[in-house]
Amino acid sequence: MRKIIAGLFVSLDGVTESPETWAMQYHDDEMLQAVAATLDNKDTLLLGRRTFEDFAAYWPTQSPESDPFAAFLNETPKVVVSTTLGEPAWQPTTVVRSLDDVRALKEKPGKNIGMTGSATLTRSLLQEGLLDELNVMIHPIVIGSGKHLFDDVNAQIPLKVVDSKTYTNGVVSITYGRA
Question: Is-contact 156 126, C-beta < 8 A?
């Protein structure tokens, strides 16, 4: 069975909202190479509707020459979990309507399923036992306000540390699996 592996940028005070306004100042070659290395074992990108719409407004106009992630994001099949999204223009994309569809996706043959952003979907998958790994890149900055990764979680979810690394820029990457 395929794994679903989520990756999120998080501030020291737990904010995940709008990382493009605070996280990019920490992105250096060391960290970007580590993130890029994780793409080889993924052949599908799972996104929530808001992250998909944000990405669809930006990534199709980016070239692989100017951004190494452009080819992966533009060419990799994307699956969006949404009850409201119509037929998306950014292809290849499939819209699924329920977490049962995500369960079925995990059972299809292939490499792992990657996620980026999509904090609301990440929470839902964690609560339903569908998320296999959660990688949080904790940035050494306090934002003060904004949405947090674990807003609206109403039950304990035991996790265990699978891997961790501290980058020279001060970002700490921690990968959690289910305990």
Answer: no
